[in-house]
Amino acid sequence: MTHNPKGTLDISDGIAEKFPNPGSRSNFGLNKAHYTKVTGPLFPALPTVADIKQQELADCYLLAGVMAILARQGGAETIEGTMFDRGTDVVVRLYDKDGRARYVAIERSIRKNAEKHNGGAIWASLLEKAYAAATFVEEGKKYSEGGRAAKADAKTVAGWAKLSFGSSTEAMRVLLGTKGNESAIHDGLLGGASTDVSRFSQLFSVEVASKMHDSVRATLRDSIFGGDGDKLHRFLQWRTDHVQHSWRTLQDAYGTVTTDANPDAAAVPRKVMRLEAFSDFLTKHGLPTDIAAIIVNFAESKQLMPGKRGTGQYTVAQITLFDRIKRAIAENRPVTLASQASVGTSISAKGKSGGEAIVKGLAASHAYAVLSVREETAAPKRKWVRVRNPWGSTGRSYVPSPKGGTNALKAVETTDAEFELELADLTKRFDKVHIAGVVI
Predict the structure, then answer these.
(1) Position 226 in a domain
(2) Which residues lie across from 378 on neighbouring strands?
(3) Can you tell me the distance from the alpha carbon of 134 to that of 17, in angstroms, rounded to the nearest whole number?
(4) Which of 182, 190, 267, 345 is placed for a possible disulfide with 341 were both Cys, Cβ 3.0 to 4.6 Å?
(5) CA of 282: how far to CAs of 256, 290, 291, 300, in Å?
(6) Domain shared by 124 and 228, yes or no
(7) Residue 197 has what pLDDT?
(8) How far is C-alpha 266 from the chain's CA centre?
(9) pLDDT at 304
(10) Same domain, 70 and 148
(11) Whether residues 146 and 235 fall in one domain
């Protein structure tokens, strides 16, 4: 496709619908906003991810989706092909909930206050404006804040108020016309194949060992202890005498912490049981070294628990997530990631768009575009996902951890918008992955 400063959208097969300038965020989007006309080419060059610079609007989910499209081969042409400059107005193709292309005509103007719209290229600001102006986009959306789900009795929002928090899956559907997939990122107590998880859990069941069914005992003996009944017996005796209550306490301490029951409560960072913590637990409670080694080896070989950040010890669930992202990138599908409501406790600053807590360069309740993936071929064979922050700045890097042991990494803040996330860090800090339903 040939670059055109006016855009390459063909509007000959559709009628452009004129939408008025969207209202400001105040009063749920109903108040008047002030605009100023803009001049210059819509696309001075093919668009790039660097054209996106999120300002006060909490629309990271939309801008991350746009960047995710641009990051794919042919993505720049795709974005240029969604817009056309008619001089006094710009036409943008968006899709309604029925998947029908709609041609949105908006005045060639942007907010007078530069903080109220995307701070990068003109095309990006006008695309953002068309998304806010089109009444069929996110129609009926309820007011929410802090990334939380809207309450049932919340007010309906319009205009720029619509762009306060949302889903990249929905944004990419509006931009591309086909619904994609949104799925949760899990990093709980155990993350392996169901059979292995079941057997491992049975080891630490609060059930009294004397009541364990013979078939379960035989399965544990053969699958974990190599058929050695004496070693299984020694383990069960230790478990009965010492750690039933302690194991339950450990499970509770490392479970996923949520605030769904009290949405107004402060977010609590997710705790994840690492292989090292589990091994320390066994040692602390006096399990004989030879028995502990068998159990730790089973958990490690079956990829049931992750190691510390940077060790390259990943669970089946983590590897499955990485492979999904890798496959989507290979298929040329746009991908975004959404961070949790809490990404740590050492908050250094707050984001200006939504008051997002920033911890060592990572923003909470924030969307990032996925650019690429990388796998190390030499030990420790870490896996990396490269992302970009729609702010156009603020990222995370890693340095060797002085306390974490061999290969462990410590997170540090950088000013770079693009950075790599180590997989164990990603699964601990992020809770959603969004994959577009369209191959670019």
Answers:
(1) yes
(2) none
(3) 9
(4) 267
(5) 21, 11, 9, 14
(6) no
(7) 82
(8) 20
(9) 86
(10) yes
(11) no
Q: pLDDT value at position 262?
A: 42
357 and 270 share one domain: no
* Tokens standing for residue 47: 């668009």
Q: Is residue 214 part of a domain?
A: yes
Q: Are residue 167 and residue 212 in the same domain, yes or no?
A: no
Residue 186 is assigned to a structural domain of this protein: no
Write down which residue in 245, 267, 301 finishes a domain.
301
**Is the residue at 144 inside a domain?**
yes
Which pLDDT score, from 0 to 100, does residue 243 have?
A: 57
Convert 205-267 into a string of H (helix), E (strand) and C (coil).
CCCCHHHCCHHHHHHHHHHCCCCCHHHHHHHHHHHHHHHHHHHHHHHHHCCCCCCCCCCCCCC
- Asked if residue 215 and residue 170 are part of one domain, the reply reads no
Q: Is-contact 53 119, C-beta < 8 A?
A: yes
Per-residue model confidence (pLDDT) at position 295: 93
Write the CATH number for 323: 3.90.70.10
117 phi/psi in degrees, rounded to 5: -150, 175
Q: Quick one: 161 and 35 in the same domain?
A: yes
How confident is the model over 254-286, as pLDDT tens digits?
A: 554 333 344 444 444 456 678 888 888 888 888
Domain that holds residue 87: 16-179
CA distances to 80, 121, 316 from 53, in Å: 18, 8, 36
Residues 390-404 pLDDT 10s: 999 999 999 999 887
Query: What is the number of domains present in the chain?
Result: 3
In a shared domain, residues 28 and 110: yes
CA-based nearest residue to 393, from 150, 52, 92: 52
Query: Contact, 233 vs 217, CB < 8 A?
Result: no
What are the C-alpha distances in Å from 148 to residues 144, 159, 166, 212? 6, 20, 9, 44
The predicted structure's pLDDT at residue 258: 36
The last residue of one of the domains, among 111, 146, 179, is: 179
Which residue has tokens 């989007």?
29
Flag residues of the chain having pLDDT under 50.
256-269
